[in-house]
Write a structure and sequence with these properties.
By secondary structure, the protein is an alpha+beta fold. It has 16 helices and seven strands.
Length: 340
């Protein structure tokens, strides 16, 4: 994915900076490597491009020497760190309402991840899926986000909602015992999904902190911000999101243009003006989804190829080798070995 398409609020960098400082590393030197200063972190309106955020997080892992940095940052992130979205969740009437509002407005805070919930026999899963390749920071980012969400869930339910287990797609780290202590439940690694599971009966129990008026106002603010974001985002970002949201198959250039109320030539020209094309965006989305499906282990390679619109398996293999410099079967095998 084009990294410049995603940004993050500076508040998240501020939390990382505080943890870097707590671990005894030089914050000014660490920020300087990415062209930032401590004074800039005080500007609440500042947003950090993904490429810069990635460099900061990778750098923080290096200068602190702390592999569990993501968990330590997640422990710091209170509901207030998530702005109006956190306020809406804290005012929710039920866990179901809180999950729904986070799912709907999560991209106001972090567009790198999509949040969905799935109902399975005996449990409801809140699932986190990257919306673009984030391999360099996947582990610390997901650890921080999932732990922060569970901290917020514990706060709004006042400890009444028991999390059955946390799930990560990557292999168990050396600090797995620390993760277990911080999450306060079983943590499973090498799984087909990332997120946490709660009992279905917890979804609709009334919350003692519920405030319908505060929730309604917070939700209205979130919706206004989402409308503003949608209106101001690039056409490429809108097309990319449309492609990512498809359950199977992708609309053609002609159909995509119709969905956006314009002629195919107009869509093509405007994407070219933004430095991309429908073909490039489709390639990026196929790459991201192929990696996700292979890591999950839920589908055969032939099924993944079909889902991504490749009628010929050989064409999918060639494309994947171009993306990752190895065939999909080898990529899956390496991931499974890493997951133990």
């Amino acid at each position: 994915m084009r990294e410049g398409a995603s940004t993050l609020p500076v508040l998240y960098v501020r939390q990382i900076a505080e943890q870097v400082r707590s671990l005894g590393a030089d914050v000014a030197l660490w920020l300087g490597e990415s062209g930032l200063t401590e004074a800039q972190l005080a500007d609440a309106s500042l947003t950090i491009p993904y490429a810069v955020f990635e460099g900061l997080l990778v750098g923080a892992l290096r200068v602190t020497g702390e592999p569990a940095l993501g968990l330590l940052v997640g422990e710091r992130l209170l509901a207030s760190a998530h702005g109006m979205l956190g306020y809406a969740a804290m005012s929710s009437g039920t866990i179901r309402q809180a999950i729904d509002v986070v799912e709907r407005y999560a991209r106001l805070r972090i567009s790198l991840l999509a949040v969905t919930h799935e109902e399975h026999p005996g449990e409801v899963r809140a699932c986190y899926r990257p919306t673009q390749p984030i391999a360099a920071i996947e582990r610390p980012l997901l650890e921080a986000v999932v732990l922060s969400t569970l901290r917020m869930l514990n706060a709004i339910s006042m400890g009444a909602c028991t999390v059955r287990h946390v799930s990560f797609t990557f292999a168990a780290p050396d600090y797995a015992a620390l993760a277990r202590d911080l999450f306060g439940c079983e943590v499973r690694y090498g799984q087909s999904w990332t997120g946490f599971a709660i009992p279905p009966e917890a979804l609709d129990v009334p919350l003692r902190l519920a405030d319908p008026e505060a929730f309604a106002e917070a939700a209205r603010v979130c919706q206004r911000e989402l409308d503003k974001l949608t209106a101001n985002e690039s056409l490429a970002a809108r097309v990319r999101r449309l492609l990512l949201e498809q359950k199977s198959g992708f609309p053609s250039l002609q159909v995509t243009a119709r969905l956006f109320g314009m002629a195919p030539r107009t869509l093509h020209r405007r994407l070219i003006d933004e430095g991309t094309s429908y073909r490039d965006l489709l390639e990026e989305v196929r790459h991201a989804l192929a990696v996700e499906h292979l890591k999950s282990g839920r589908f055969a390679i032939e099924e993944i190829a079909w889902t991504l619109g490749y009628s010929d398996l050989a064409n999918f293999r060639r494309a994947f080798k171009r993306w990752e410099s190895m065939p999909p079967s080898e990529y899956r095998a390496r991931h499974q070995r890493a997951a133990g």
